[in-house]
Design brief:
The chain has 241 residues and is an alpha+beta fold. It has two domains: 77 residues, Beta Barrel (OB fold (Dihydrolipoamide Acetyltransferase, E2P)); 104 residues, OB fold (Dihydrolipoamide Acetyltransferase, E2P) (Beta Barrel). It has a five-stranded mixed barrel with strand order 2-3-4-6-5. The protein is elongated. The N and C termini lie far apart (66 Å).
Length: 241
Amino acid sequence: MNDEFYIGYLPKAPALLSKWLKRAVAALFVLGTASGLWLTIGQPSFADSKFEYGVSREYSGALEEWPYPMLRTSDGSFLLVATGKHGLSAAAFTGKSVRLKGTLIQRGADRMLEVETGSLKQIGALPNGNALTFASLGSFTLRGEIVDSKCYLGVMNPGNGKVHRDCAVRCISGGAPPAFIVRDGSDDARVLLLTGANGRQLNREILSYVAEPLEISGELVRSGSTLILKAEPSRFRRYTE
């Protein structure tokens, strides 16, 4: 009689078969655990970004309309957007001293405020000589990706790449400032606000380029810590990574 023949209704499996099964289960457990750890470690880390959802603070400073609505304070500059997938309409407050309530969106040193509806108020005119200054850094050809700045800076994580394309298209078409993300010599991501060559704000005319690997030639301009790339969409070029 073969003592190693296993019959399902018996209470115990034969010793040799039981020993083999225990080893196989242990090996599969170790393999599964190692695979899970490898997949976890291999995932890219989350960006250093935040969206203080539900937290509204009061801010005051000078409101600038170019390249996109921006609040300039004693603590630096903040891009401004409305709630949802909308840009902020603030032309009537350009060059004025204002007060507003907003929710902070931040990625690294780049900051934005989602302005609470109805909270934007003028509190005075700016003193003479308090206007923004811009410095041209020259003409460059850069490679990167167009994103919507609101999601990229912290509302979504990740806020770039093909997986985020549909959301970015809706945000930019709604008026959120488009940004061109490039890598510097240290492989750190830099946020360049994107405008037309004549400085006009861009939205619907660049939607087909969002989340694509792009090469853009244009003039790079700096204002404080803000970088602006002025370039015509007709000069945007897709490339293969």
